[in-house]
Amino acid sequence: IFSILKLNSAPGLPDTCASPQPPRMCGPDIQTPSAIQICRIMRPDDASVARNMIEEVGAIISTWHCNSQNRDRCVATLARVEHTDFLWPMCISEVAHISAEITYTSKHSVEVQVNVMSENILTGTKKLTNKATLWYVPLSLKNVDKVLEVPPVVYSRQEQEEEGRKRYKTQKLERMETKWRNQDVVQPVLNPEPNTVSYSQSSLIHLVGPSDCTLHSFVHEGVTMKLTDKVVGIVAARHCKTNLVTASVNAINFHDKIRKDCIKTISGRMAFTSNKSVEIEVLVDANSVADSSQKRYRAANEGGSLPMPQRLPETQDEKKRFEEGKGRYLPMKAKWQGHLEPQP
User: Fold this and answer.
1) 259-269: per-residue pLDDT in tens?
2) What percentage of the chain has pLDDT greater than the value 70?
3) With contact defined as beta carbons under 8 Å apart, do 262 and 303 qualify?
4) What global pTM score does this model have?
5) Domains located in the chain, CATH noted
6) pLDDT band at residue 136 using 50, 70 and 90 as cut-offs
7) How many whole angstroms separate alpha carbon 214 and alpha carbon 201?
8) Which three-class secondary structure string do you get for 54-105?
């Protein structure tokens, strides 16, 4: 079992291979790695480890970049996980290669593209298993509620900056659209009918402990994503009466930080079903033991491969979410079919 970090240096710097330590700060014009890669052999207890490592490698390169100038020290915090594809499963004893690259920076955020490759160390066979885009914001170490400015990244082509700016505006609008729905509550229903939303909706309650947090006593975003994945699996299993795998994540928006000693409630419910897949919506509430403030996150996952029992919308709100899910599903299905077609 091993874990190494390979640094792909910025132009003008030699390639290095080192332990995960930040680059030496040597003046106002500090150069940081343009891309990094983490390698790790998969163990039996590494369920969902690829998702956690995706978040970690993005946080490393974002924090390095945001501290590349002489300024207030900061730590990059995950604000949004863009659409994530799970193309192939990662098997035990395979080596996971997680690479990250900064593709765009705005005034207060960093876009990171992450790819995960699996390698069979016996045959040397490699394949792309995961693709994800993540957005981070730098928070000051002196005041974690203060968002600092991000040093601009150097683009090799002008088109890269323009395309990145379009992606930034799109994700910002989608992120804002989820805030008005943060007052949604998943209410339990007594004796629900099979194949209804109420029948399969599920919740997990988790007390945030020290092992769930960063050095600043805020919950690590990877912990929230892992709990979300568990709830999604429970909802899908209740509805389909079989095992399922996550095929993609539409988006995860982190609207606020969760502190240590909070009680998290992760609730999932059906949003849409097709013939062979199901979309599940997830809410995360964080209730402080000391006060009554609540924080919610929103996620939408879709997965499956067997014929699905069709979801039966009952209320107007459920019918509306079904149509919204159908609108997301049809373009995604066309995209998947395009990937499956033989390449010339």
Assistant:
1) 888 888 899 98
2) 76
3) no
4) 0.74
5) 3-156 (3.10.129.10), 197-334 (3.10.129.10)
6) very high
7) 30
8) HHHHHHHHHHHHHCCCCCCCEEEEEEEECCEEECCCCCCCCEEEEEEEEEEE
- In this structure, what token pair is assigned to residue 171? 């994700």
Instruction: Using pLDDT thresholds of 50, 70 and 90, give the confidence band for residue 26.
Output: very low
Choose among 188, 199, 185: nearest CA to 317.
Answer: 185
The token pair at 35 is: 């891309």
Tokens for 32, please give them. 């940081």
The pair of structure tokens assigned to 149 is 């400015």
Strands 126-140, 16-18: pairing is unpaired
> Look-up: residue for tokens 């790695």?
33
Q: Is 227 helix (H, G, I), strand (E, B) or coil?
A: helix
Beta bridge partners of 27: none
pLDDT given at position 287 = 84
C-alpha gyration radius of the chain = 21
The mean pLDDT value of the chain amounts to 78
Residue written as token pair 């007390």: 207
Q: How many residues does the chain have?
A: 344
CB-CB neighbours of 96 under 10 Å:
22
| Cβ–Cβ < 8 Å for 130, 76 | no
294: region left, alpha or beta (phi > 0 left; psi from -120 to 50 alpha)? beta
The position carrying tokens 């079919």 is: 337
At 231, which helix (H) or strand (E)?
helix 221-240
Helices 49-66 & 221-240, crossing angle to 10 degrees? 150
Amino acid identity at 295 = K
- DSSP class of residue 151 equals P
Note the pLDDT of residue 176: 80
Kindly state the DSSP code that residue 210 receives in the 8-state scheme.
Answer: G
